[in-house]
Amino acid sequence: MCGIAGVMRRDGREPDPEVLDALAAALGHRGPDGEGRHVAGPVALVHRRLAIIDLETGDQPLYGPDGLVLVANGEIYNDPALRAAMPASPFRTHSDCEPILFLYAAHGLDFAAHLRGMYALALYDPGAGRIILARDPFGIKPLYYVETAAGFAFASEPQALLRAGLVRAEIDPARRAELLQLKFTTGAATIFPGIRRVLPGETLVIEAGQIVARRQLARLPARPVIRAATLADLDRVLGESVALHLRSDVPYGLFLSGGIDSASLLWLMHRISGERVQAITIGYDGADADDESEAALAVARAVGARAERIVMTEADFWAAAPRIAACLDDPTTDAAALPTWFLGRAAAGQLKVTLCGEGGDEMFAGYGRYRRAVIPWRFFQRPARQRGVLDGIPGLDLSGWRDGFTAAEQREAAGRNPLQALQALDCAEWLPNDLLIKLDRCLMAHGVEGRTPFIDPDVAAFAFALPDASKVSWRLGKLLLRRWLAERLPQARPFARKRGFKPPVSRWIAAQGARLAPLVAASPGIAAFAGREAVAAVFATGDGQMTWSLLFYALWHAHHLLGIPPDGDVEAVLAAASRAG
Hints:
CATH architecture of the largest domain: 3-Layer(aba) Sandwich
CATH topology of the largest domain: Rossmann fold
Largest sheet: 6 strands, antiparallel
Number of strands: 17
Distance between the termini: 38 Å
Shape: globular
CATH superfamily of the largest domain: HUPs
Structural class: alpha+beta
Number of helices: 22
Number of domains: 3
Helix content: 40-55%
CATH class of the largest domain: Alpha Beta
């Protein structure tokens, strides 16, 4: 896992070395194990390496036939099969990314259709005078770009483009409204007007410093052929994915939440590796309903895993919240980012790779909105996300917040039944723009790679083709997965309702609400769209998501727009933001 960046100037001049230095420095946390560059005329590629596969010869850039150059952030899990299918190719390394060069030489822009893995990559073809960017179909790995009169630039994180001076730090009010109401932003546009995302599955062709072509791989079938499946079928598909995700030349482990997704991964990791799995779980101070760490430890004991429980306290929250907001440069107000960051910190130094349960709910239909989609009584049915987080608060103008989401709903519904449409919508927007951003930034902040076996093309194709009755009932989701786990690891109590994984931010913030509300209201980021009365009304609700959304945005704005270091606690950062405004 790594960080990549690059520039293609329009005027034919060589990119400024200071710009390349700034890009490399800004991505240093993603790749503490090494740096590489390739500069040729108006094109420059930058790579920061986190060494996972081929520790000896896997440094990048990688070079291929006809002068092709590659920098990549990702893992290509079908690397052995690709190499076996190309026996005449003169491979120089054991890097799992090297086959990409020969796939491009053989298949041109169709090369990405042959990849199974998570990746964001840039390939320079000097013969054609073009850069090709590509991102995996589910958007597990991030990639952003800017197009200006001077040329084209890209990077793994928006903050790198900002720090290199390639675009100004400004706020798009429409995307801000999306963020505060949905907890994430949709589509290609980011909260920074000049920065766009390479979409999941998208391939871009850049010539003379501008995009000249684009294409996109499908992540899910448009009209799946519905097929019933047995527990043995599920075992085969999940087992193969987990086995591929365990390929590593460095120590790996698991983040264990207490839910059925991570418990399923734990059991498969134990079976496949034949070793004691190293797992980390997190709990919270005080007695909170959402603390599943004891259940996670019980599951770990059942398979003989080495499990570590860390604790996130209220003091930890106030001290670390600014740093967590700072690492989420493409912001999400999902409070699950908080424990994810602490798990990444705990893993650093002992693990470089962790398997994570993200994607299980989207693939196998675990959310309540999925169950409501199949209820025959129309009274109980309602479209997903009709209400925003901050609805009902007077004095907040967040109009238009649902426009992008509505467009995505219409696009993903074509040819699909209501349950499939919701799953496809979540895979198109919620998964890449909330859950996977959260996972990527909070782990890469500590130099840790997160892998997601549920988010795999073969797993997705299998799960999406299941009959609705194999996924959900009126009471429970993920039915097939629950039945499979019940036979293999009953200690996981797969038919019990999941309580959650989020920290008790409601309790923590409510205890300081009277003191905190004026500080949040005085911050320039909040004052730009909300008056003091509106902020006070939010904090008076005691609603954890509402208050965290405003607090997070105030901290995020302080760092990414005002340049305030996140070194102090919440109060210190908010006070500095108020002075800066």
